[in-house]
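TL;DR need C-alpha coordinates for one chain.
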Amino acid sequence: MDNQDLDKLTENNQERDYCYKFDRQMHQFMVRKFLPYFSDKPNTALELGCFEGAFSTLIQPYFSQLTLVEGAEQAAEKTRHLFSSYSLAATESIEVICERFENLQLNQQFDAVFLLHVLEHIEVPSELFQRIKQWLAPQGRLFIACPNAMAASRQIAVKMGLISEPEAVTDGERLHGHYRTYALHTLSDEVDRAGLTINESGGICFKPLANFQLDKAYEQKIIDDAFLEGCFKLGDEYPALCASIFVVATLPN
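>> reply
TL;DR here they are.
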Protein backbone atom coordinates (compact mmCIF):
# COMPACT_ATOMS: atom_id res chain seq x y z
CA MET A 1 0.00 0.00 0.00
CA ASP A 2 1.13 3.55 -0.68
CA ASN A 3 0.40 6.57 1.51
CA GLN A 4 -2.92 7.21 -0.25
CA ASP A 5 -4.03 3.66 0.60
CA LEU A 6 -3.12 4.28 4.24
CA ASP A 7 -5.18 7.47 4.18
CA LYS A 8 -8.14 5.48 2.83
CA LEU A 9 -7.67 2.95 5.63
CA THR A 10 -7.70 5.81 8.15
CA GLU A 11 -10.97 7.12 6.66
CA ASN A 12 -12.52 3.64 6.94
CA ASN A 13 -11.54 3.47 10.59
CA GLN A 14 -13.07 6.87 11.34
CA GLU A 15 -16.31 5.87 9.66
CA ARG A 16 -16.45 2.75 11.83
CA ASP A 17 -15.75 4.77 15.02
CA TYR A 18 -12.92 2.32 15.63
CA CYS A 19 -11.23 4.41 18.31
CA TYR A 20 -13.34 3.95 21.42
CA LYS A 21 -13.02 5.74 24.74
CA PHE A 22 -11.65 2.51 26.17
CA ASP A 23 -8.81 2.69 23.63
CA ARG A 24 -7.89 6.13 24.93
CA GLN A 25 -7.97 4.82 28.50
CA MET A 26 -5.69 2.00 27.40
CA HIS A 27 -3.09 4.57 26.35
CA GLN A 28 -2.96 5.77 29.95
CA PHE A 29 -2.61 2.21 31.20
CA MET A 30 0.21 1.49 28.73
CA VAL A 31 2.19 4.47 29.98
CA ARG A 32 1.75 3.29 33.58
CA LYS A 33 2.94 -0.19 32.64
CA PHE A 34 5.99 1.08 30.75
CA LEU A 35 6.92 3.97 33.06
CA PRO A 36 9.30 1.96 35.30
CA TYR A 37 11.49 1.40 32.23
CA PHE A 38 11.80 5.09 31.30
CA SER A 39 15.13 6.72 32.08
CA ASP A 40 15.44 9.68 34.46
CA LYS A 41 18.10 11.17 32.19
CA PRO A 42 17.35 13.23 29.06
CA ASN A 43 16.69 10.70 26.35
CA THR A 44 15.21 10.19 22.90
CA ALA A 45 12.17 8.26 21.76
CA LEU A 46 10.83 6.98 18.44
CA GLU A 47 7.16 6.08 18.02
CA LEU A 48 6.38 4.04 14.94
CA GLY A 49 2.78 4.39 13.83
CA CYS A 50 1.74 7.36 15.98
CA PHE A 51 -1.61 7.73 14.15
CA GLU A 52 -3.02 11.10 15.31
CA GLY A 53 -0.68 11.54 18.29
CA ALA A 54 -2.92 10.55 21.21
CA PHE A 55 -0.34 8.28 22.85
CA SER A 56 2.48 10.61 21.79
CA THR A 57 1.12 13.39 24.02
CA LEU A 58 1.30 11.06 27.02
CA ILE A 59 4.96 10.06 26.60
CA GLN A 60 6.12 13.50 25.45
CA PRO A 61 6.93 14.81 28.98
CA TYR A 62 9.34 11.92 29.59
CA PHE A 63 11.64 12.47 26.62
CA SER A 64 13.91 15.30 25.55
CA GLN A 65 13.47 14.45 21.87
CA LEU A 66 10.49 12.76 20.25
CA THR A 67 10.39 11.42 16.69
CA LEU A 68 6.96 10.35 15.49
CA VAL A 69 6.42 8.32 12.31
CA GLU A 70 3.06 7.84 10.57
CA GLY A 71 2.44 6.47 7.08
CA ALA A 72 -0.96 8.13 6.54
CA GLU A 73 -0.63 11.77 5.51
CA GLN A 74 -3.92 12.85 7.08
CA ALA A 75 -3.01 11.34 10.45
CA ALA A 76 0.52 12.76 10.34
CA GLU A 77 -0.85 16.23 9.63
CA LYS A 78 -3.26 15.95 12.55
CA THR A 79 -0.33 15.02 14.79
CA ARG A 80 1.63 18.07 13.64
CA HIS A 81 -1.37 20.28 14.31
CA LEU A 82 -1.85 18.70 17.73
CA PHE A 83 1.69 19.51 18.82
CA SER A 84 1.81 22.95 17.18
CA SER A 85 0.01 24.45 20.18
CA TYR A 86 1.09 21.89 22.75
CA SER A 87 3.16 22.72 25.82
CA LEU A 88 6.44 20.92 25.23
CA ALA A 89 7.59 21.13 28.85
CA ALA A 90 11.00 19.40 29.02
CA THR A 91 10.94 18.20 25.42
CA GLU A 92 13.49 20.00 23.25
CA SER A 93 12.14 18.87 19.90
CA ILE A 94 9.29 16.91 18.31
CA GLU A 95 9.52 15.77 14.71
CA VAL A 96 6.63 14.21 12.81
CA ILE A 97 7.64 12.17 9.76
CA CYS A 98 5.15 10.92 7.19
CA GLU A 99 6.74 7.80 5.70
CA ARG A 100 6.23 4.07 5.40
CA PHE A 101 8.48 2.06 7.69
CA GLU A 102 10.21 0.22 4.86
CA ASN A 103 11.26 3.55 3.31
CA LEU A 104 12.14 5.28 6.58
CA GLN A 105 15.69 6.64 6.84
CA LEU A 106 16.85 7.67 10.32
CA ASN A 107 20.35 8.91 11.10
CA GLN A 108 20.28 8.27 14.84
CA GLN A 109 19.56 5.68 17.47
CA PHE A 110 16.92 6.02 20.17
CA ASP A 111 16.75 5.21 23.88
CA ALA A 112 13.13 4.07 23.49
CA VAL A 113 11.19 2.75 20.51
CA PHE A 114 7.41 2.35 20.76
CA LEU A 115 5.40 -0.03 18.57
CA LEU A 116 1.88 0.09 19.98
CA HIS A 117 -1.01 -1.72 18.29
CA VAL A 118 1.04 -1.62 15.09
CA LEU A 119 2.72 -5.02 14.74
CA GLU A 120 -0.53 -6.75 13.80
CA HIS A 121 -0.69 -4.35 10.81
CA ILE A 122 2.75 -5.36 9.50
CA GLU A 123 2.77 -7.94 6.71
CA VAL A 124 6.36 -9.12 7.36
CA PRO A 125 7.26 -8.34 11.01
CA SER A 126 10.76 -9.84 10.75
CA GLU A 127 11.81 -7.14 8.27
CA LEU A 128 10.58 -4.33 10.54
CA PHE A 129 12.34 -5.83 13.54
CA GLN A 130 15.65 -5.84 11.69
CA ARG A 131 15.22 -2.13 10.98
CA ILE A 132 14.24 -1.41 14.57
CA LYS A 133 17.43 -3.11 15.79
CA GLN A 134 19.38 -0.53 13.79
CA TRP A 135 17.42 2.35 15.34
CA LEU A 136 17.61 1.12 18.93
CA ALA A 137 20.50 2.45 21.06
CA PRO A 138 22.74 -0.21 22.68
CA GLN A 139 21.04 0.25 26.07
CA GLY A 140 17.69 1.26 24.60
CA ARG A 141 14.34 -0.47 25.08
CA LEU A 142 11.67 -1.52 22.62
CA PHE A 143 8.08 -1.28 23.89
CA ILE A 144 5.52 -3.41 22.03
CA ALA A 145 1.80 -3.74 22.69
CA CYS A 146 -0.78 -5.63 20.63
CA PRO A 147 -4.47 -6.50 20.99
CA ASN A 148 -4.76 -9.81 22.82
CA ALA A 149 -6.31 -12.78 21.00
CA MET A 150 -7.03 -14.45 24.34
CA ALA A 151 -8.79 -11.49 26.01
CA ALA A 152 -11.74 -12.65 28.12
CA SER A 153 -14.17 -10.70 25.92
CA ARG A 154 -12.79 -12.38 22.80
CA GLN A 155 -13.03 -15.86 24.28
CA ILE A 156 -16.65 -15.13 25.19
CA ALA A 157 -17.24 -14.10 21.56
CA VAL A 158 -15.90 -17.50 20.46
CA LYS A 159 -18.31 -19.29 22.79
CA MET A 160 -21.13 -17.15 21.36
CA GLY A 161 -20.20 -18.23 17.84
CA LEU A 162 -19.22 -14.72 16.76
CA ILE A 163 -15.57 -15.66 16.13
CA SER A 164 -14.32 -19.03 14.88
CA GLU A 165 -11.27 -19.07 17.19
CA PRO A 166 -9.53 -16.52 19.46
CA GLU A 167 -6.66 -15.85 17.04
CA ALA A 168 -8.86 -15.49 13.96
CA VAL A 169 -8.74 -12.15 12.13
CA THR A 170 -12.30 -10.82 12.02
CA ASP A 171 -13.78 -8.93 9.07
CA GLY A 172 -13.64 -5.71 11.10
CA GLU A 173 -9.98 -6.26 11.99
CA ARG A 174 -9.14 -7.04 8.37
CA LEU A 175 -10.84 -3.80 7.33
CA HIS A 176 -8.70 -2.06 9.91
CA GLY A 177 -5.58 -3.54 8.30
CA HIS A 178 -4.76 -6.46 10.60
CA TYR A 179 -2.77 -9.39 9.23
CA ARG A 180 -2.86 -11.47 12.43
CA THR A 181 -3.99 -11.53 16.05
CA TYR A 182 -1.34 -12.19 18.70
CA ALA A 183 -1.53 -14.15 21.92
CA LEU A 184 1.18 -13.59 24.52
CA HIS A 185 3.16 -16.66 23.51
CA THR A 186 3.03 -15.88 19.76
CA LEU A 187 4.09 -12.28 20.37
CA SER A 188 6.99 -13.45 22.55
CA ASP A 189 8.00 -15.97 19.88
CA GLU A 190 7.99 -13.19 17.26
CA VAL A 191 10.31 -11.06 19.38
CA ASP A 192 12.59 -14.03 20.15
CA ARG A 193 12.92 -14.87 16.45
CA ALA A 194 13.98 -11.29 15.80
CA GLY A 195 17.01 -11.81 18.05
CA LEU A 196 15.84 -9.43 20.79
CA THR A 197 16.02 -10.07 24.54
CA ILE A 198 12.70 -9.91 26.39
CA ASN A 199 12.97 -8.05 29.72
CA GLU A 200 9.30 -8.30 30.64
CA SER A 201 6.03 -9.42 29.11
CA GLY A 202 2.45 -9.56 30.28
CA GLY A 203 -1.02 -8.11 29.90
CA ILE A 204 -2.57 -4.66 30.23
CA CYS A 205 -6.07 -4.38 31.72
CA PHE A 206 -8.42 -7.33 32.21
CA LYS A 207 -11.11 -7.07 29.52
CA PRO A 208 -14.57 -8.50 30.32
CA LEU A 209 -16.43 -6.82 27.43
CA ALA A 210 -15.82 -5.65 23.87
CA ASN A 211 -14.72 -2.05 23.37
CA PHE A 212 -18.10 -0.80 22.20
CA GLN A 213 -19.79 -2.54 25.15
CA LEU A 214 -17.40 -0.93 27.63
CA ASP A 215 -18.01 2.46 26.04
CA LYS A 216 -21.78 2.07 26.17
CA ALA A 217 -21.64 0.90 29.79
CA TYR A 218 -19.45 3.88 30.64
CA GLU A 219 -21.75 6.36 28.90
CA GLN A 220 -24.76 4.96 30.78
CA LYS A 221 -22.83 5.09 34.08
CA ILE A 222 -23.05 1.33 34.56
CA ILE A 223 -19.26 1.37 34.98
CA ASP A 224 -16.91 4.22 35.86
CA ASP A 225 -13.21 5.06 36.13
CA ALA A 226 -12.97 3.04 39.34
CA PHE A 227 -14.22 -0.06 37.49
CA LEU A 228 -11.60 0.39 34.75
CA GLU A 229 -8.92 0.93 37.39
CA GLY A 230 -9.98 -2.35 38.97
CA CYS A 231 -9.68 -4.06 35.58
CA PHE A 232 -6.19 -2.60 35.17
CA LYS A 233 -5.07 -3.96 38.54
CA LEU A 234 -6.73 -7.33 37.93
CA GLY A 235 -4.74 -7.59 34.71
CA ASP A 236 -1.60 -8.17 36.77
CA GLU A 237 -3.19 -11.37 38.11
CA TYR A 238 -4.70 -12.52 34.80
CA PRO A 239 -2.38 -11.28 32.03
CA ALA A 240 -3.62 -13.87 29.54
CA LEU A 241 -7.14 -12.40 29.72
CA CYS A 242 -6.18 -8.75 29.21
CA ALA A 243 -7.18 -6.32 26.48
CA SER A 244 -3.58 -5.92 25.28
CA ILE A 245 -0.40 -7.90 25.66
CA PHE A 246 3.02 -6.28 25.86
CA VAL A 247 6.73 -6.97 25.60
CA VAL A 248 9.65 -4.83 26.74
CA ALA A 249 12.79 -5.90 24.88
CA THR A 250 16.42 -4.90 24.42
CA LEU A 251 19.24 -5.71 22.04
CA PRO A 252 21.16 -8.86 22.99
CA ASN A 253 24.26 -8.35 25.14
